[in-house]
Structure formats: C-alpha cells, structure tokens
C-alpha cells in the first residue's frame, strides 16, 4: 500500500519589506549584493505595496489549495527562495506518510538553471526516502496549450510572448530553455490562429554577463519601427502575478510603451483559475500513472492514496 503527495514548487517572494534583504541574499546564494541594487529592489516591492499583501505567495497558496481539492491528495508548497522552503515541504510530505511524491514546479519550461535547480533541491531534501516522480517540463502539454490559446482569441494587436531571461551562456551549454519557450509560443499562436506574434525576454539581471535577448523594452522600439501600434504581452514563461509581471511588464514595459505612443496590454495570468488548476491536476495524474506502472511490472498492484 502506497501513499502519494505532491510538492508544488514556486520561486517564492518576501512576505514583507523587511524580508527583502534576506530574500535577495538567498537569490544571490552568498555572492555579493550591490547596496544600490538592494535599495532598488526594496523600492520596487514597496511600490507594489507588499506591506499589505504579497501577490505571489498568496496566489501560490490559493493554487495549492485548489489543486489539493481537485486531486484529493495532500499538496505541500515548497519555495525556492523563501518560506516554506522546498526542504520543509518534503519533510511535511514525508511526515504525512507519503512514500511517493510528485514534484511539480509552477514554471513550465526546463532550464538547468530553473527547473533543474528545483529538482536538485527536492532530491537533496528527500534523500531517497520516497519515490520521486518529478515533472521536468510541461510547456507543450496539450491541455496547457489549449488553456493558453483560449485566452488569445482574435486579438487586435501584435502578440509578444515573454519569459524570464537567463544568462546567454546556457545556449552554449545546450540548455533546452529557449527552444521550449519558442515551441510553446508557436503552439499557442497556432492553436489560437495568430500569425502576428514575436518573442522577447524580460527581467534580466545586471550580473555582469550577457543575458538572452531581445529584452521586451528594447523589443518595443523594434516593433514601433515596424509600425506596430498595439501590443499584447503574453508572459508564457510565468503562471502567476508576481513582481516580474507587475513591475517589469505592468510598470516598466508599459511606461516605455507610453513613451513610444504604443498601446500595451497584458494577458491575464493563470493564477488559480480552475481551468489552469485542472491542467496541473492532469500533470500530477499522469506522473502518478507513470509511477504506478513501475511496481506493476514487478507483479504488484499499488494504489495511490
Ligand atoms: O514576486 C516575487 O517576489 C518574485 C518574482 C520572481 C519570479 C522569478 C522567476 C524566475 N527567476 C529566474 C531566474 C533568475 C536569475 C536571477 C534572478 C534574480 C531575481 C531577483 C528577483 C527575482 N529574480 Fe528571478 N524571479 C523573481 C524575482 N532570477 C527579485 C533579484 C533581483 C534582480 O536581479 O532583478 C539572477 C540571480 C543572480 O543575481 O545571480 C538567474 C527564472 C525564473 C522563472 C522560473 C521560476 O519561476 O522559477 C528562470 C517569479
């Protein structure tokens, strides 16, 4: 008899302004932080009003609770850079009696620097104490593509799909991130019957090395040069409203668009939309089915409960 649970992972966000220095230190992993960068980050969070509520952590909790209801299994949240940590989620799942754990990241596209890092954190925490079924990528999951395309019927604007940039060296390392992003964008555009689209990155950090481009803000200039007047930003690499959406797109990119005289709108993020939660539930169910097949081959009949 086996018992399954889900560890649902997200980037994590500081709960209050006072948490920002520790949160940023965690992201930097011990590398130095320029005081002006920290001050800038605190200011961004202050302007988004996180003293009163933090969008990312609240949304992740709502998504977690909805997924738990939808699949009837315990779902534990584990944050990469904040609390509860991925290791805490793993311990809670084990303490709850789980001996099979589905690891699912709230980011659809694989990079060794993103989903790979979540995976390493969860594997280290579990230390072989449970059977891990890790969902490595889901950016081309048919249900997810349908869900994304449904939000995109007939826009009267040029669509720009966006995702978090990463250091450009990942291309030399053979990382599949960019290919996966372009493939998701293509599939969504095709399913929605959109021909007028492009792709840009966002949220690059000034870490002293080149990052993948073009950046959305520069890309707007290029679109204006092509006489585009209306832009619809579709952040395909993200699934919730957080700093990178509410600041980088809703504030910075929108300001640049206004300067250029371009209308910029953004698609609504999936967050805890029931149709999106159903997509997540499908990913969990398939991971469990794959896991169930293994012991059956050895002649046992497990049940995921
Ligand atoms: O709402 C929030 O409070 C958190 C929003 C947030 C999300 C997010 C997602 C991704 N990141 C990824 C990669 C990097 C790399 C660095 C980096 C830096 C930051 C900083 C903040 C931040 N990220 Fe982020 N990221 C979010 C927030 N991210 C804040 C630090 C300030 C700054 O540099 O602007 C560079 C680290 C370094 O300095 O070495 C690399 C990737 C994702 C998408 C996948 C995922 O969600 O995990 C990739 C949300």
Please give a handful of descriptors for the protein shown:
single chain; 305 residues; alpha/beta; 4-stranded parallel beta sheet; 8 strands; 15% strand; disordered C terminus; binds ligand FEC
Structural account:
The chain is of the alpha/beta class and 305 residues long. The chain has 11 helices and 8 strands. The strands form 2 sheets. A 4-stranded parallel sheet has the order 2-1-3-4, with helices on both faces. Helix 3 crosses helix 11, helix 4 packs across helix 5 (115-126) and helix 9 (216-225) runs parallel beside helix 10. The N and C termini lie close together (8 Å). Ligand FEC is lined by residues 11, 13, 24, 27-28, 41, 56, 107, 113-114, 164, 166, 205, 207, 242-244.
List the topology elements:
Layout: E1 4-10, H1 20-28, H2 35-47, H3 55-71, E2 74-79, H4 86-95, E3 100-105, H5 115-126, E4 131-135, H6 142-150, E5 158-164, H7 169-172, H8 177-192, E6 197-202, H9 216-225, E7 230-234, H10 243-260, E8 263-266, H11 274-297
Parallel strand pairs: 1-2, 1-3, 3-4, 5-6, 5-7, 7-8
Helix pairs in contact: 3-11, 4-5, 6-8, 9-10
Ligand FEC is lined by residues 11, 13, 24, 27-28, 41, 56, 107, 113-114, 164, 166, 205, 207, 242-244.
């Amino acid at each position: 008899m086996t018992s399954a649970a889900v560890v649902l992972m997200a980037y994590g966000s500081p709960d209050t302004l006072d948490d920002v220095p520790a949160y940023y230190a965690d992201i930097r992993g011990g590398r130095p932080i320029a005081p002006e960068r920290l001050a800038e980050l605190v200011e961004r969070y202050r302007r988004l009003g996180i003293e009163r509520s933090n969008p990312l952590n609240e949304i992740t909790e709502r998504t977690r609770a909805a997924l738990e209801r939808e699949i009837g299994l315990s779902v534990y949240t584990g944050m990469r850079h904040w609390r509860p940590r991925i290791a805490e989620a793993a311990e809670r799942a084990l303490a709850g009696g789980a001996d099979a754990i589905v690891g699912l990241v709230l980011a659809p596209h694989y990079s060794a620097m993103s989903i790979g890092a979540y995976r390493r954190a969860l594997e280290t925490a579990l230390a072989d104490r449970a059977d891990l079924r890790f969902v490595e990528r889901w950016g081309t999951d048919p249900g997810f593509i349908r869900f994304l395309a449904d939000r995109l019927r007939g826009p009267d604007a040029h669509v720009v799909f966006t995702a978090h940039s990463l250091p450009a060296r990942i291309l030399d390392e053979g990382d599949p991130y960019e290919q996966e992003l372009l493939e998701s964008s293509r599939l969504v555009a095709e399913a929605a019957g959109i021909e007028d689209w492009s792709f840009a990155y966002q949220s690059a950090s000034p870490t002293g090395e080149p990052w993948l481009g073009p950046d959305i803000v520069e890309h707007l200039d290029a679109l204006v040069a092509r006489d585009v007047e209306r832009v619809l930003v579709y952040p395909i690499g993200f699934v919730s409203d957080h700093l990178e959406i509410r600041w980088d797109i809703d504030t910075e990119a929108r300001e640049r668009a206004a300067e250029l005289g371009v209308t910029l709108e953004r698609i609504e993020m999936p967050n805890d939309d029931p149709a999106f939660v159903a997509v997540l539930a499908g990913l969990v169910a398939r991971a469990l089915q794959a896991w169930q097949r293994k012991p059956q081959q050895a002649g046992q009949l497990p049940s995921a409960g």
